[in-house]
From TrEMBL:
Annotated protein name in UniProt: Acyl-CoA synthetase (AMP-forming)/AMP-acid ligase II
Keywords associated with the record: Ligase
All residue ranges annotated as the AMP-binding enzyme C-terminal domain in the record: 434-509
Family: Belongs to the ATP-dependent AMP-binding enzyme family.
One of the record's GO molecular function terms: medium-chain fatty acid-CoA ligase activity
BP GO terms, sorted: fatty acid metabolic process
Organism whose genome encodes this protein: Micromonospora jinlongensis
AMP-dependent synthetase/ligase domain span: 43-386
InterPro entries: AMP-bd_C, AMP-bd_C_sf, AMP-binding_CS, AMP-dep_synth/lig_dom, ANL_N_sf
SUPFAM superfamilies noted in UniProt: Acetyl-CoA synthetase-like
Pfam hit, one: AMP-binding
Amino acid sequence: MDLPFTVATLTRRGLLTPGNPVRIAAQLNALRTWGWSLAGELRQAAARDPGRVAVIDEDGVELTYHDLLDRAERMARSMRAGLGVQAGDRIGVLCRNHHGLIETIVAATLLGVDAVLVNTGLSAAQLGTVAEEQQLRLLVHDDEFAERVLGLPAELPRLDERAREELVAGALPGDLHPPERDGRIIVLTSGTTGTPKGARRRTPSGFGPLVSIIGRIPLHTRDRVMIAAPIFHTWGFAALQVCFALRATIVLHRRFDPAATLAALTANRCDALFAVPVMVQRLMEVPPPDPRPPLKVVAVSGSALPGGLAPKFMDAYGDVLYNLYGSTEVSWASIADPQDLRQAPTTAGRPPHGTRLAMLDDDGQPVPTGRVGRIFVGNEMLFEGYTSGASRETRDGLLDTGDLGRLNADGLLFVDGRADDMIVSGGENVFPSEVEDLLAQLPQVREVAVIGVPDPEYGQRLAAFLALHPDETLDPDAVREYVRHYLARFSVPRDVIFVKYLPRNATGKVLTRELRRYFG
């Protein structure tokens, strides 16, 4: 990350604005002492803006940066003194978006403990596997998951919401010092095909990762930001990191509801919203409030934008949509701004500053512009590997995303889907995402998923699952004829199945394993 670009970006986003010299000195000392972990970021924010509201929960709880840090420190001291948690341990965090989740993660990093962010959509069996594979020392969970954790080993201590509050309230005095080892954040892969893997996230070493994001997405110091994306997800956690760095006010709801989200955005005068694409799609299904939220940024990531959604959303809410393409393993690869999305609504955009992007063939050689290749990414936040010890293929410092894509003549990236989602039907390579984007443009269609299924004659064939808007109808033959009009014959789905809704995990990704059950 070159210094001129970093300084210019930090200045433009308000991070180098002059202020109280004593607080600035304390802020810099916090970063020098505690580094760029989540604990260090919270400490620097509390040093510079102690009285600024850090978190607003949906139940009206407001905590300043000073209060949030104090509660996290209290919890850390109680976990250490009362539960024997120490550096190198791993704790599981099974919580929705609220201040208790943040306090728990920060408390872990204060102690040098690894925090495993558990997907709230995991089944009891999957949760048991995660607890065993990650060797959890402690599980902190919301009350709503009490029944789901009953089957865990009796020797695994569990803290519900009341117990967590008791830890905070009953903390003994004491000092916390930077741990000998950094606590890692372990994000579980989305797990649409089975039990997810744990991926170890790097701790940032400076301003570079922040500058990469805010260089393309115009977030500013002291913005008011609603994080609707689950914080246990890579995108939601990244939003939390960015908000701490910017000393933003964070608005949280435990569950996403489109009408409640729009009301909260308006009531809290939010400048920005972090969401996953399906949430943006749901926002378009309810009447917009009057007045509309004062949004300057709606940043989405986690899955592909459905075809046609970007221009429709921007027509309704202004040119405020930013689409980040990345993964748990590579963090980010590219960002599409509103101009990119107006030009090409399905693009994943361009790599931000300090990021390398390459389309390679199976031999590791670059493919020509416009040709589909394997997407490889290089930046300073590539993951450190899976907790199982496995990793991903690398080429010249670039990590394989597992996705296929292409770059056009203007340098815009288009993601065609997972490499293992591409099917070969009658000798032809077929990408389900191309058909999904086309079908999503039908006005009757609320959401759509296209998958490959076995076929005795062609090897594989496409099956389309469509959920329609209320009171709408479509004929399967009409759907096939529509696809045949625009795409090659081998892209026409043989099976057209109408469903009430698509099965999704907690981050909005379609659970293809559930759809394949239609075919035994």
